[in-house]
Amino acid sequence: MTIYNVYIFDREGQCLYYDEWFRTKQSGLAPIQEYKLVFGMMLSMKSFVDRLATNDSNQTVNFYKTSAYKMTFLESATGIKIILNTDPNATGIRDLLHKIYQAYTETANSAAKLAIFASNPPNENFLKSRVRDIVMKHPAYV
């Protein structure tokens, strides 16, 4: 099982964070174009599910799976969206997404406090090191 890459978006679709590990094929797009494409696909999937829903309850999309990869989604109540691409057979990915979200929120809250109370800007690589540590400890990381 393999973890390929992760995207973190804000509610407007701005990519706040991206990292990759065992990605063997590049998209051929500029990074900003790839981010827009991934975010747009996630929004389209949500819209598709909402339109085809068989009842009025809140429908959610948790993942999109092909024979080559699985794209798993997590959306927070604040509009933060995390997308993780993995091997189709990877397990425990929902838990991993929640851990990444927790690291993101803790880092964002710490950065906000530092910006208010200190003259030094927060370390921009702190989130990257936390996310990498979480991902590399996960059983799907090969």
From TrEMBL:
Listed name of the protein: Trafficking protein particle complex subunit
GO biological process: endoplasmic reticulum to Golgi vesicle-mediated transport
UniProt record similarity statement: Belongs to the TRAPP small subunits family. BET5 subfamily.
One annotated Gene Ontology cellular component of this protein: TRAPP complex
Family annotation (Gene3D superfamilies): 3.30.450.70
Quaternary structure note: Part of the multisubunit transport protein particle (TRAPP) complex.
SUPFAM superfamilies in the record: SNARE-like
InterPro entries, A to Z: Longin-like_dom_sf, TRAPPC
Lineage: Eukaryota, Metazoa, Ecdysozoa, Nematoda, Chromadorea
Pfam families linked: Sybindin
Protein location: Endoplasmic reticulum; Golgi apparatus, cis-Golgi network
Domain of life: Eukaryota
Primary location group: endoplasmic reticulum
Membrane-traversing stretches: none
Keywords annotated in UniProt: Endoplasmic reticulum, ER-Golgi transport, Golgi apparatus, Transport
